[in-house]
Amino acid sequence: MQGRHSAIHIAVDDHTRATLTGWLRRQKTPVALAKRAQAILLLAAGQTFAAAARRVGLRERHVRKWALRYVTHGLEGLADKKRPGRKPVFAPEVALYVVKLACERPDVVGRSLSQWDSAELARQLVHDGVVEAISPQTVQRILASHQLKPWRHHLWLSPTVPRDATFAAQVTEIVTLYTRPLGTWEMVLCVDEKTSLQPRTRKAPTLAAQPGHPIRVEHEYTRKGALNLFAGFDTRTGTVYATTAERKRQVEFIAFLEQVDRETAPAITTMHVVLDNVRMHKGKQVQAWLAKHPRFVLHFPPVHCSWMNQVEQWFSILQRKRLQIADFADKTHLAERLMAFVAEWNEHAHPFRWSTKSVAKVMAKCENPVAKAA
Fold first, then answer.
1. What residue stretches are annotated with the Tc1-like transposase DDE domain (predicted)?
2. SS3 state of residue 207
3. How far apart are CA 201 and CA 149, in angstroms?
4. How far apart are CA 307 and CA 314, in angstroms?
5. Which residue stretches of the chain are H helix?
6. DSSP assignment, residue 162?
7. Contact call for residues 11 and 44 (beta carbons, < 8 A)
8. What is the topology classification, in CATH, of domain 165-364?
9. pLDDT at 163
């Protein structure tokens, strides 16, 4: 039976029709809004309220409601009206007190805590007489609304202000090495050591992933010593030079430099080596070796700026791709797998390019009166 028509007349122009059709096609359109848009299009096509209601899955009175809203307010009438929501149980002063506590160390109010969490904040509000009772979940919502997470922390190093001229000179030197065009006789190699790499032989075989199951690694393992990986990263080609050693002394470091010397073409007469400030890199034996190999020129980033050494980025890749699951038969097996990874990397080696934005951000750390005066 055909439903009765109404005095409400639905007119849809081309622009409105295109908008309503777009809502129906868009996957992210809320279901309720899509049904209202479909109902308006059906009514504009001559369908009765009853027929349109059956097609879109709404009650007939709801279709009439949205039709009237459309006639009165246009497309905006199809959206839900803003609702005031439930009245807050706690006064605004309670939220302000929560924020105040969260932005203070717990020992300021006499609590022996390293940091706040929602439960402890709720307990403190009751103790201070601010509220008779409040749940940790309510405190959590207040904290979330102010983007506060007082239970989290991160380590940081307070900078020396103002930066001295030495810091600025060292940063500028390293950035220039990474960004300026090199001569055909030059090479920039970032060098460092990844220490204490353990084979960790598992007491049961590591099982490959299966449908519904991730890789399974035996928890218990046998200690079989540790290795140190000496690595150098060519900043222009991405090629990695590497070797392993059981100890980390000047002797092993010099042996690595000799390996690099052998594997580098004689046409490279200046090899800029970027490495951190550990004592081993500056020892007497190293200095004596450098005196006999003048093409090696050492460059040291400022203290606490090891992130400027690009081999650290490569170490991060090594950790994720090869060392995430430590399961090797012994140190020999570990060394073989490390060298195999280096070989695979070098087959598709690529440099880490510093963008203009990154360089500007690094150089901004040198912007201070002392550095400019220098």
1. 188-333
2. strand
3. 40
4. 11
5. 14-25, 31-44, 49-56, 60-73, 92-102, 118-127, 136-145, 165-179, 250-263, 284-292, 311-321, 331-347, 356-364, 369-373
6. S
7. yes
8. Nucleotidyltransferase; domain 5 (3.30.420)
9. 67
Tell me what the mean pLDDT of segment 341-350 comes to. Answer: 97
Please name every residue paired with 213 in a beta bridge, in sequence order, or none if there are none: 210
CA triple 94-100-105, angle to 5 deg: 135
Write the single-letter amino acid at 190.
Answer: C
Strand-pairing partners, residue 191, are 232
Q: How many residues does the chain have?
A: 374
- For tokens 């950035």, what's the residue? 175
Q: Based on the number of CB atoms within 10 Å of its own CB, is 260 exposed (0-12), middle (13-18) or buried (19 or more)?
A: buried
CA distances from 299 to 175, 229, 302 (A): 11, 20, 10
Reported as a single tens digit per residue, the pLDDT across 217-274 is 999 999 999 999 999 999 999 999 999 999 999 999 999 999 999 999 999 999 999 9
User: In one letter, which amino acid is 220?
Assistant: E
Contact 246, 228 (CB under 8 A): yes
Smallest CA-to-CA distance from 186 within 242, 257, 265, 253 is with 265
**pLDDT, tens digit (0-9, with 9 covering 90-100), for 92-122:** 999 999 999 999 999 999 999 999 999 999 9
Strands 296-299 and 270-274: parallel
- Encoded tokens for 285: 């034996």
How many Cβ atoms from other residues are within 10 Å of residue 56's Cβ?
19
The SS3 assignment for 213 reads strand
Residue 237 to residue 317: CA distance in whole angstroms = 16
Exposure letters 235-257 (e unless 16+ CB within 10 A, then b) = beebbbbbbbbeebebebbbebb
- Please give the structure tokens belonging to residue 154: 């991160």
Torsion 214-220-222-226 (CA) sign = positive
Nearest one of 251, 244, 248 to 323, comparing CA atoms = 244
- Other Cβ atoms closer than 10 A to 53: 21
Query: For residue 148, what are its two tokens?
Result: 């506060």
How many alpha carbons fall within 13 Å on the CB side of residue 243? 14
What would the two tokens of residue 130 be?
């601010």
- Quickly count: other Cβ atoms within 10 Å of residue 341's Cβ: 17
